[in-house]
Records
---
Amino acid sequence: MNMLGDNGILLSGASGLIGTALLRAFSLDQFPTVRLVRNQPDSPNAINWNPNDPKDLPGLFRLEGLSAVIHLSGANVSAHRWTVAYKREILQSRVQTTRTLVDLLHRLEKPPRTFLCASAIGIYGSRGDEILSESSPAGQGFLAETCREWETEASRAAQAGMRVVNLRFGVVLSPEGGALRQLLPIFRSGFAGRLGTGRQWMSWITMDDLVRAVAYILQTESIRGPVNLVAPIPVTNAEFTRALAHELRRPAALPVPRFAVRLVFGDMADEALLSSVRAIPERLASSGFHFDHPEIKAALRAIL
């Protein structure tokens, strides 16, 4: 981290799963970090902001000359059933907050050198067995359209001279939250199994590799544009199910049929649970990044 200089990083979404992990890593490295928070600041290193108003930031001067911005804000995709209202919240919480933050950065005399903005491999849509790299075109569906608009807003930071990177996250594996934390009690109970046919591809990454990859991207000036933050060996849902059950020493012989997944989760089933996204980290691999956990069995063993 010390290769970034001494000016610090601005972090939004610091209370989320990924934000918390990054904040912990920056703290361990004694790297200065300023958090954007929506509530009353709880420390001198926090700044209150209104994501809907680019003119309402009394502490704007504190953003002058920062090394980088990492923008992670957004409503949790899997936290609620996808009603019309919640889909609107998912979209606005990403697009509007990014627009506001970029507008704020445009007001600076000395903007940060680098702008890292969250995105997701959902931008590719469900593509079956097709191998998807950063050069693959966007797909169809709500998540794909959300990610397209999200990345379009982030790209405006380049107009202020910033290096822009779109962090296209896959399924992040961490026992502290996200999909894995939700799955562990089900698998430990023995009442688990593949979803649908189980043939849909799942592109994943451990939290440790994700944090290392973000630090690597911050330090590698040649990396710009979209970056797939996924392990180099994606797996099918059936393969993941077998690997997790084996690691927990539990059976996983109760498949959940597609109609049941759709009945419970609605639109989210087709776009998040039954969709097939076989993404690979071509840009990270070609730039020389090394994954500590490239293979799912060893990754789950290390995590659990």
Note: The chain has one domain: 2-303.
---
Amino acid sequence: MGPFRRFLQIVYTLLFVIFLGVIGYTLIEDMTPLDALYMTVITLSTVGYAEVHELGTGGRIFTIFLIIGGVGLVFYTLTTIVQYIIEGNLRDLVGRRRMKEKISKLTGHMVLCGYGRVGREVARVFERESTSFVVIDNDLDAIARVGKDKYLHIEGNATDDEVLKEAGIERAKGLVAATGSDVNNLFITLSARSMRPELCIAARASEEESEHKLKLAGADRTLYPHVLGGRRLAMMALRPLVIDFVDTALDSRGRELVLENIEVGQGSPADGKTIKEGQSSSGGAIVLAVRKKGGKLLTRLTDDVLLSHGDELVVIGTREQLRALEGSA
């Protein structure tokens, strides 16, 4: 149980004791509700003011039990409040402020909505790829996990435009809607697309029929994990060497060949040259596919295809070759 929940539980218990005190004095001593509340408060607080009227035997016995059961609770509650304010709340406040400052400085980062099993794996990949990102989730357990993993995060509903703005969506490179609810992912996609028409959005679908709806809402890419998992299992059985090679190439930690999606930047040796010339000047990187700035995807490439600044390339090669081909964006 978190400190805030424990604090609320103690407060509720104290209010219940006060309620019992009011009921007890009202029934035993025939006091009005206000007089009963007054007697309960001065008894629990031990301030020593005069009684409303002289108590009978029943009232005195009830007061004894009220003092025994309630005074300790009052002091424990006060101690807990002070501890919560000084230690927990103040620390959380400072921590949230620092986190907001860090998030406000991010640019070209990813916004990850949802930190369940899928979202957590996405975060691990972002970390391995040295990609800056912010996690959004409104589940307390998920927030506790992301805090333990020491990722930048915001506690809130990702369907809320203000929460997306706080996560820096206006400066972000892309967004991943990975919550366990297709409805939430749909709303997140609609909100993000309306705020950033050019933003790259990838969304998870828990149901196969939801993929089409997410694309209509503005998702650039959708993923139905069950279908993808089935396809991958089949390919692992049919073409294990191919899968091993692709996994190795996609791993940014690999020291050999890397399969990467890059953009031809200013200063790239491929800018204004053919694929053959660009591959030669980069030291041997191989271009597998090209998406032109207009959006057309070329997969059947010839050596005379002309590359230009802003084209996106699917390339395989060493890290040094890819950096040379990419240039400075």
Note: The chain has three domains: 3-102, 107-229, 240-326.
---
Amino acid sequence: MARYDHIRQHLGDAPRAWLVTGAAGFIGSHLVEALLQLEQQVVGLDNLSTGSLDNLAQVEVTVGRRQWRRFRFLHGDICSLDSCREACTKVDVVLHHAALGSVPASLEDPLGAHASNVTGFLNMLVAAQAAGARRFVYASSSAAYGDDPAPLKSEAVVGQPLSPYAATKFVNELYAGTFARCYRLNAVGLRYFNIFGPRQDPAGAYAAVIPAWIRAMIRGEPVYINGDGETVRDFCYVADVVQANLLAATTDAPAALNQSYNVALNAGTTLNQLFELIRTGLEPRLPHLRGLRPQYREFRDGDIRRSQADIGKAASLLGYQPQWTVGRGLACTLDWFLRQPAKKSPDTGGGRMVSGPAGLKRPIGGGALHSKSAVER
């Protein structure tokens, strides 16, 4: 991982100003944490409709007070162009992860998905270009492959979108390419596969099966598998997502810019294998899981039997090299979930403010709060 090590060293020597949208969400908070540990100046934008200030409170504890002072939080919404413009002021790099990141939610509310994922995305492109940002890195999705039947997904081939969410992500890539050609805003899209790790909401959009199963096992609830359990997915630990973002944000190779890349492990794991990894990881501390078996249900309509990423393009053009196996990532994830206190009700949703790290109990900066435009990735 020579290039990634070099980048981290270089960033420490020459700090930049970064904007992370969806900063209080799962992936966003990990990006904020990594950047602060590298002595960067970071602005976070979030409307807290799905993101949580608890996530940022954990970041503050991890990075310490000195590095935390480099972070500024804006409570605003990407559906507000004024909020986007304020957030982009004097920013060198935008890591855009604010979106409505849910296929079911997009099916229930396609207008809300469009508002967040298309209008909000366009607002961010306009604001970043006007502010003179040098790079725009954004979260795309493996959903962009739609009904492409190939078991190994390659960036050059996509199918027809299977949900409004998938359509919005495809439109994101079209808009990013258009802004590169018309306005010379260099953008890089990252097609995330099944991302998992600490701070992931059990009801979250990415690899929801992992946090959902962990929570069910901890609570002694049934664990359900759709189909026979031999469905294959490419699970990727969130630290490798951080790597991909930093590589995309700092590459100077012209051929690497204005491209979309798969971000995954390039390793298939069946749902049956995943179940056993989680169960055996929890069993030493939760003896009631000994002998636990999943309950199988019918396949869901539209489910793809095998989805695995070809990461050759990201490896060759960005220098991306995943460092975390599923087992190693799960060990860290399970440890985090077991340390969390039980909560009677969720901390997020509806725009309700929750207590958080110093300086975050009161929103800084304005921005209308749109209940339908979720910001967690």
Note: The first strand starts at residue 17 and ends at 21.
---
Amino acid sequence: MNSWLNISADSDFSIYNLPFGIFSTAKDSPRIGIAIGKYAIDLSKLNDAGLLLNDKLTNDILVNNYLNDFIALGKEVTVPVRERVQGLLCDEGHKSAVEQCLISLSDVTMHMPVQVGDYTDFYSSIEHATNVGMMFRDPENALLPNWKHIPVGYHGRSSSIVPSGTEIHRPKGQVLPKGEDKPVFSPCRLLDFELEMAFIVGKSTKMGSSVSTDEAADHIFGMTLFNDWSARDIQKWEYVPLGPFLGKSFASTTSAWVVTLEALAPFKVDGPQQDPPVQPYLAYNGQHNYDINLEVAICPDGGSDNVVSKSNYQYMYWNMAQQLAHHTVNGCNINVGDMMASGTISGKDESSYGSMLEISWAGSKSLTLNDGSERKFIKDGDTVKLKGYCEKDGMRVGFGEANGKILPAN
């Protein structure tokens, strides 16, 4: 597939990708765009020019603060729109008209892609769960008894999910200092990133119904990078018996462009063997894991990037189809725009660990950055950058970045 637009071979936003997002400019209010190379395509302008050829694409859907209304039109609309834009970018006959709808990415402000009604965080990497169990429980029985039977998850805070580039203040809360028996109130001392990905629900269900693993793909619009920041010391004190609260709810960072499942389809791979066999409602057909290269870098204030982790989404033990089937098996309804995160994605060796908790092994060792400074956890002024991309047979499909800088506590 060849486009008349000059697109760098290493661009995340190739002709094979065409992710959706919400952008604004100095002159234009938030609206739906598609990323291609170094540009965003304004879909409202394409539509005004009569190029999208779909009477369901009204101005109030395309000039919008969120993708929700567009996604709710269903894949019978959203998939042809992406394919139509793909065709326009490959047809020299439409070059002049499409060029009028291109805006340089350097001139746009990106916003939250969707209005998130509900957010669920899973715990689906067996390597990560095993590492945490070895650190804090029995190294010989690191996984809890339920872990290989259900995709463990919890309901998180949707209001504090923010787009890439948003600065985040260090959270405050109660922590129990080592060797003490009473908590103190202080800024978090053990701030961490979590390398995750999230999927966005593309089709709602009614309360009392459920989504099977065979139906799951029809209910998933696309995916983003996701950093589920964690205040480890606050979390450790509070999580028994009801789980994370203040240690997780202060912020999560998502990348701004949503890569569709259709763009990811060429990169499907088999998932790991699940043993013991799962319950029938969690059994699935076909491939639901994806070969997505992931990377985390820490950039100190005024410094340069230090890559601290290289992992891959294909390691996930529990896949998205199983997560969605489990989430809805009790009759829980889902809505367009809901986000469901994977949980920390760690690989099989230290270079692929998806959190500072694992990289520093609960703070027992330090990581030296290229400026000579050391890290066990994230310091004020640090920017954490997540990147991700797929590559195969000359095709590259990427997610851009999910970046967040840590500011001192208020």
Note: The chain has two domains: 20-109, 119-407.
